[in-house]
């Protein structure tokens, strides 16, 4: 009969291995992934096989995207980020992505993760998505995280990427911002300084408001005005002080001006939409009259040709 004291260490080792196995099992699909890598002087690009072509395209376009972005923002990235291109949506979600995300950035780690399953739907979306995520890395490198409001972070990223958001908005719902303008159900920007809502329609509205507000600032004060706000945040100012110092208006006045601008814009769009049946009817009548005139001209020309032949 074995000595109980001698068998205790063996039992402990078996128990430890069992616990370790159970802990690792949920991660087995991720561990089984075949991951390739492309390393350049400016970025490390990792990708799930067989996405080597997408990775090469990313590596080729990255330097130009970064130079253009640094020129527009007036700041450099100053680091070599890691870009991960994921093949499966499930793995992408395991890495911390939200349900609507197409890509996300982790500035503290200098990491960008892209869901190729969503990007491949539109093959021309890779460049703006990469631009969007790189903008997050640059902004967070120069502005402390607690000083950069989320709405400004997302608004600037959408502005530099031509309006591209990092989420796939719900289809068939229409622009949330237009609905908010018509109903008067705005989301105050102080409520969008931190994490955005997790679900639609509030999530879509948060992104649309952020983009619209930043684009309004650029439209009224130029890109230099927006950059002055960012520089103020970099220098340690609160957003209210940064806005007032950069634009000579209070944050409340700026938000009110943006709302008035949207009301006028959306009211005009609604007016045109309501008048669309009448406009189409009028255009149809004009085309009918023009068609009839053309018919008469051709008929008259035909008669003239017949008369000339008879003579």
Mind explaining what this structure looks like?
The structure is a single chain. The chain is α/β, with parallel strands linked by helices and 311 residues long. The chain has a domain at 171-311. The chain contains eleven helices and five strands, in the order H-H-E-E-H-E-H-E-E-H-H-H-H-H-H-H. The chain has helices spanning 4-24, 28-31, 52-73, 89-94, 116-119, 126-142, 150-160, 176-183, 202-234, 239-247, 251-310, and strands at 35-39, 44-48, 82-86, 103-106, 111-115. The chain has a five-stranded mixed sheet with strand order 1-2-3-5-4. A hairpin with a 4-residue loop joins strand 1 (35-39) and strand 2. The protein is globular.
List the helices and strands and how they pair.
Layout: H1 4-24, H2 28-31, E1 35-39, E2 44-48, H3 52-73, E3 82-86, H4 89-94, E4 103-106, E5 111-115, H5 116-119, H6 126-142, H7 150-160, H8 176-183, H9 202-234, H10 239-247, H11 251-310
Parallel strand pairs: 2-3, 3-5
Antiparallel strand pairs: 1-2, 4-5
Helix pairs in contact: 3-6, 6-7, 7-9, 9-10
